[in-house]
Amino acid sequence: MKMLLMVAALFVGQAAAFAQDYQAQKQAFLDDLLTTVPLSAATEDRAACASGRGAQALPRLRQGGANSLPDAADHCVTVLIRLGLAGRLQPIRDTRSDTPTPAVALDSGFVVGYAKGGPVPAGMPSFAALRTVAERCLAQREQIGLCRATGYAFGVRAAQGERVRVP
Q: Which residues, in sequence order, are CB contacts of 30 under 8 Å at separation 6+?
């Protein structure tokens, strides 16, 4: 029994080390996206995010072993920040419909919030608090108004220099 407990403790320790390593890899991915990834690639990623394709592909990629990829919300918000920093953040539209999808609403809310800038209002949710709503928006499973408001809050915070940090 004592040996079983020791082996279990070893596995738990290794699992924690792997989790920290994945966290570091995810953060490095996001940091590279902000600084070294070509703007053309960021623009393509933005289109994938706004269409919902990015969020749909992530589970398949992780099943294939790409466990160090950041969550869709972290990736897509970082893409928007990158384009904003480069002065290439323009409104987009879903050309398939006059009604925006949740993912497009998140994107458009970010654009408006980033352009407005200004001080972060008291009580505005943090990046961490917004993350779960953004995941649902990017998966096209949230109300459009909430997605737009979530994007707006991300945009205002990003305009003030906040960046995505992997939890």
A: 70, 74, 75, 78, 163, 164, 166
User: Per-residue pLDDT tens for 139-151?
Assistant: 999 999 999 999 9
Of the candidates 124, 106, 105, the one whose C-alpha atom is nearest the C-alpha of residue 162 is 124
E strands in 4-148 = none
Measuring CA to CA, how many Å separate 27 from each of 22, 56, 70, 79, 164? 9, 21, 8, 13, 8
> d(Cα 157, Cα 87) in Å, to the nearest integer?
16
* 99: helix, strand or coil: coil
CA–CA separation, 120 vs 159, rounded Å? 9
Residue type, 77: V
For residue 20, what are the CA distances in angstroms to 46, 67, 165? Answer: 27, 12, 13
